[in-house]
Amino acid sequence: MATSVLETCRVPAPPGATADLSVPLTFLDIAWLHFHPIHESEYQKVPVMALKVTLFPGRGICVGFANLHCLGDASSVVGFIQAWASISKLGGDHEQDFLTKHAESLPILDRSVINDPLGIDIIFWKVIREVPLKSSSFPLPTSRVRATYILRQADIKKLKDLVLAKKPGLLQVSSFVVTAAYVWTCFVKSEGQVDDDDVLEFFIFAADIRARIDPPVPANYFGNCLGYGAAKIEHKQLLGEEGFVIAAEAIAEQIKNRLNNKEQVLKGAENWLSEVKKMFGVRAMGVSGSPKFDLSSADFGWGRARKLEVVSIDGEKHSMSLCKSRDSEGGLEVGMSLPKPRMEAFAAIFEDGLKF
């Protein structure tokens, strides 16, 4: 289908706009410095954010947003987009009204709230500075299709009940745990036969640790404050009859023992970059987003968004997107990007697995 671009324009900053602000990077920011850079090669300074608004006459408006991850994590960026939408909806000169109403929840940029007694920022910087800061081509594959799957509240409850029936003493059996475990097992099964059934499969996920570290970081801190978990299981176990339950247990244990444990959540953080480097080349699935986020509710004055897409998953091998469902109360939306034959296999396994 051909697309005609009617007009392209740049929108300059208005007179009296806020001056540039420089803030230092904490070790939790530095770790993301080379993650999905914006694709430009002629900048002396790397842009941290890009916006694109496209009008489809008679159809609607598409708002595109890209940011360098070291600007802030999803909690920060989602908060910014929702605030931006609210101010846009108010229109006119109501920005000050919004700021006054939300004074207690305005973003905090003070990097001193991130406690770093070990000087991990220096350790990370020595590693990162050895990697040239350059534009990444980040070619998006042309052989993939994208699809959105919905787990309704009733589906999520069934999955939770199934896990608890098999593992009654298991804690942290959340909507995230069962959704991640279910999608992970469906994804692995959709591949078909592999050469080594004993090969390890990894599920890697990040989590907001603002309230999980000591001392805690304010909820409205704008920046990166993420820990991570990495569940690993043999391929043949995920394929088995108990694969979903085993996956849910592995993810739940990572949350319990690592992310929800204040003594463990940052333990060994100085080694995170080397640990992540070892993950290159392994069979892994990641996740972008969270059940907590509801960007479809961001109303710029045109009503709620009809569709939310996380396009970065097109270039990853492999990742799922995750957010609250727009149309199913208590449900979740999962985005996948796979080659068409594998997507068809995934869809069949996903649908069939919920028939119990």
Order of helices and strands: HEEHHHEHHEEHHHEEEH
Work out the helicity level.
Answer: 25-40%
CATH homologous superfamily (4th level) name of the largest domain: Chloramphenicol acetyltransferase-like domain
How many domains, as an integer?
A: 2
| Mean pLDDT metric | 88
Q: How many strand elements?
A: 8
Which strand-content bin applies to the residues? 15-25%
Classified by CATH, the class of the largest domain is Alpha Beta
Q: State the end-to-end CA separation.
A: 41 Å
The biggest sheet amounts to: 6 strands, mixed
Could you say what the CATH topology of the largest domain is called? Chloramphenicol Acetyltransferase
Question: Which structural class is indicated by helix and strand composition?
Answer: alpha/beta
User: Largest beta sheet: what is the strand line-up?
Assistant: 3-8-7-6-4-5
> Which residues form runs of ≥5 with pLDDT under 50?
none
Q: Could you characterize what this model shows?
A:
With 356 residues, the protein is α/β, with parallel strands linked by helices. It has helices at 27-30, 74-90, 95-101, 120-128, 153-166, 175-189, 235-239, 243-259, 272-278, 340-353; strands at residues 49-56, 60-67, 144-151, 200-208, 226-234, 283-289, 319-324, 332-339. The chain has a six-stranded mixed β-sheet with strand order 3-8-7-6-4-5. Strand 1 and strand 2 form a beta hairpin. Helix 5 crosses helix 6, helix 6 packs across helix 8 and helix 6 packs across helix 10. The longest helix is centred in the N-terminal third of the chain and has 17 residues, at 74-90. This is Malonyl-coenzyme:anthocyanin 5-O-glucoside-6'''-O-malonyltransferase. Keywords: Acyltransferase, Transferase. GO terms for molecular function: acyltransferase activity, transferring groups other than amino-acyl groups.
